[in-house]
Amino acid sequence: MMPVSAPSIHTLMALLHPNTENAMAGIARPMASRGIERLRLQDRAQPTTTAPVHSGMNDAAGRPVGDDTVRCMKQQQDCIELRAPLAPDCEELRLELLAAQDSGPVSTDPIDVQTQHRSQAPIRRSKWRPDPDTIPVTSVDEVIAGVPVRRYAPLGSPAPSTTLMWLHGGGWVFGDIDTADPVARTACDLTGWGVVSVDYRLAPQHPFPAGVDDSIAVTAALLELGHRVVVGGDSAGGNLAAVVARHFAGHDRLVGQVLIYPCIDPSLSTRSAHEFIDGPFITRAGLEWCYGHYLAGASTEDPRVDLTGAVPAGMSPAVVLTVGHDPLRDEGIAYANALIDAGVTTRHFHAADSFHGSFGLSGSLPSAAEEVERIWATAASLMD
């Protein structure tokens, strides 16, 4: 049994503190110069691009134009950049979080965390660009297989051929379809797919495997209705999406999986899981806190949470995003490699200068917005 330990104040501050939103102005500044760690990956996928040529100009995120920090890994090479200095807008957020750390204690009670996170949704939404309400999609709240969901469709296309089932992050403890609304709207707009955002049950009120059961039930219902389904999620939602993809391996209408810095290995035994012990972004202690409440005594080796085992035959194509500043970095890279080795059509992007959580802040971080556009463009091309 994994003990429930309190996450550092930095961990929850990055997720919950109101001042988080104040740092998201995307202020450009030159990157610091320091060495980039590299990971040898024998016979693994690697960037197709050659070394970048810089023009001397910066893009909206503050990166030098031509700096291909986020790379699609398709060719067999021998190494990838593991971690680079944070993109300027991400560094601005980091400094803002550090400056706010003395503003008061943050509760580590999971019910308080849920309440605080929900209360932050309007603040995060107000900072999102473009305004989520102007994104040309429709939405309606429904119940599918007994699970509350929010269904989205592109404006003028009420019955798209493909449906993305989106599973939000939040360590299986917090998050909901309201806080995930801008992310879901953006995905719908960029892909042209329908989106079903799932309000799966959360721990500690509903520990493992409640979230898994809800995710599988909604997917099964969509498949039975004849939908072409892509399953996707970020962080804990990425874990659930991968579990669903494995459960329905071989199903002809489960056509893809989009895994955003997914939780893969509850043992937290990789190098990166030991590397990120300080905030202000997600830390090992924060992950232990989430796993502890989620599993609540269940085995960490259950294949519905531990995805380090063999990849099933017939898995659908995958798009995987990993980021450099993340305890989950190495297990996400390893999972992308495992999919490739198993013959799964896989596109793996690695943002060496980004952090865990950036995908859900893409409306406020220009560097993350670039990653989001690249992920959804690739998914639509691969899975349509």
Outline the structure in words.
The protein has 384 residues and is α/β, with parallel strands linked by helices. The protein has a single domain, classed as Alpha/Beta hydrolase fold, catalytic domain (Rossmann fold). The protein is built from eleven helices and ten strands. The protein has helices at 9-16, 19-22, 88-99, 110-127, 181-191, 210-224, 236-247, 271-275, 284-295, 329-341, 366-383; strands at residues 37-47, 70-83, 137-144, 147-154, 162-167, 194-198, 228-234, 254-260, 318-325, 346-355. The protein has a ten-stranded mixed β-sheet with strand order 1-2-10-9-8-7-5-6-4-3, with helices on both faces. β3 (137-144) and β4 (147-154) form a beta hairpin. The longest helix has 18 residues, at 110-127. It is globular and about 50 Å long. The chain starts with 8 loop residues before the first helix and ends with a helix.
Q: How many separate helices?
A: 11
**What number of domains?**
1
The SSE string, one letter per element, is: HHEEHHEEEHEHEHEHHEHEH
- Under the CATH scheme, the architecture is 3-Layer(aba) Sandwich
Structural class: alpha/beta
In what range is the share of β-strand residues? Answer: 15-25%
* pLDDT averaged residue by residue: 84
Summed up, what is this model?
This protein is of the alpha/beta class.
